[in-house]
């Protein structure tokens, strides 16, 4: 088929860059959309009719707006072959350890949620700090050339630590700090709200990593006892779903932490993640990594516990002044002898 005809075959959709440009969206509707967290076309494309209806938008209008937003960013049914192309849009962020990157298929992937779980002091927050720096690296160095959004629920984020890590990588500490957009969440409702209002800040700052450290601490302390379990899970699932939708809409990596006792518990009920736009069907998106201390030294064992498509396995990393690093062969031998 000649090129010209091919182009004719595929209808070109109108591209909108802001919700206020959508037909039928006046200032009042735009305001409503912003209030419920859909201030960008990208986020609106992942909305459900029920969500917009809850904000007082009619069903018909909601359907129309979501359709226009989806067409604008071309989320629709695709063939499995197209899926290869779309999936190739997935990018990977280095953890700082080549061994760990390899374990998870080349680094932390975008459009998905990666969870680090482990005991207090195992290094979950250290990993989050490191990723917030690494995301700013150019793609050639394993970064995503973007900014980080950092939701801190336990007040453990330390700018000094970022500076150390940035210096080690030869980055200018001040510039690195400027590209970490930070918020402390005071309780689970605040945490949920922060993420619901995040789409604009993500877009404006080219955020390529969203960190929630810790995802579960507030939920754990606020929803106590069996009778609150169902409500907790339901809220948490919705929160994670929101996170996943942001990660997909902006091709960003989402990283969360979860503190657990020595034995990994079943905090997460098997999560049913509905595909949002149809274009990422089949790519369920929750990679779980168990991180634990070892006897002595600054070594940590990271175990891939659950991945949509990779086998289980574990690697040794270390946490030093410089950040997250690989364990050298000599150190490994020494470690083996001592054990
Ligand atoms: P959690 O899993 O509870 O979030 P953290 O990420 O806060 O744990 O890990 C804390 C540990 O990280 C410390 O006990 C220490 O072993 C290591 N660590 C933190 N800062 C440094 C540093 N500057 N140099 C070396 N190790 C560090
Ligand atoms: Mg921590």
Please, what is the average pLDDT? Answer: 85
Q: State the total count of DSSP E strands.
A: 11
Shape descriptor: globular
Structural class: alpha/beta
What is the count of DSSP helices, taking H or I runs of 4+ residues? 15
Bound molecules: adenosine-5'-diphosphate, magnesium ion
The H/E string reads HHHHHHEHEEHEHHEHHEHHEEEEEH
The portion of residues assigned to helices is 25-40%
The profile of the biggest β sheet is: 9 strands, mixed
How large is the radius of gyration?
A: 21 Å
Low-confidence stretches: 5-9, 268-284
- The rounded distance between the terminal residues' Cα atoms is 67 Å
Beta-strand share of residues: 15-25%
Strand order of the largest sheet: 5-4-6-7-3-8-9-10-11
């Amino acid at each position: 088929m000649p090129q010209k005809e091919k182009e004719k075959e595929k209808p070109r959709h109108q591209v909108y860059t802001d919700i206020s440009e959508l037909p039928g969206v006046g200032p009042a509707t735009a305001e409503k959309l912003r209030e419920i967290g859909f201030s960008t076309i990208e986020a609106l494309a992942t909305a459900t009719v029920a969500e917009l209806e809850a904000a007082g938008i009619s069903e018909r209008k909601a359907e129309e707006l979501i359709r226009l937003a989806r067409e604008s960013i071309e989320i629709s049914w695709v063939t499995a072959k197209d899926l290869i192309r779309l999936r190739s849009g997935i990018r990977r962020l280095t953890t700082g350890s080549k061994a760990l990157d390899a374990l998870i298929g080349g680094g932390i992937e975008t459009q998905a949620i990666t969870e680090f779980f482990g005991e207090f002091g195992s290094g979950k927050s250290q990993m989050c700090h490191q990723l917030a720096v690494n995301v700013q690296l150019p793609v050639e160095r394993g970064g995503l050339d973007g900014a980080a959004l950092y939701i801190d629920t336990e007040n453990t984020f330390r700018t000094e630590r970022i500076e150390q890590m940035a210096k080690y990588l030869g980055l200018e500490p001040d510039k690195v700090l400027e590209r970490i957009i930070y918020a402390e969440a005071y309780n689970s409702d605040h945490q949920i709200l922060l993420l619901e209002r995040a789409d604009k800040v993500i877009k404006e700052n080219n955020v390529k990593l969203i960190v929630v450290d810790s995802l579960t601490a507030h939920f754990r302390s606020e929803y106590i006892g069996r009778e609150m379990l169902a409500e907790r899970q339901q809220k948490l699932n919705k929160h994670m779903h929101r996170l996943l939708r942001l990660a997909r809409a902006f091709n960003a990596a989402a990283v969360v932490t979860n503190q657990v006792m020595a034995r990994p518990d079943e905090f997460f009920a098997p999560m049913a993640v509905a595909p949002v736009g149809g274009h990422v069907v089949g790519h369920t998106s929750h990679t779980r990594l168990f991180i634990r201390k070892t006897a002595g030294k600054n070594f940590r064992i990271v175990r891939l516990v659950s991945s949509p498509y990779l086998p289980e396995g574990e690697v040794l990393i270390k946490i030093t002044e410089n950040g997250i690093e690989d364990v050298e062969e000599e150190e490994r031998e020494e470690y083996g002898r001592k054990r």
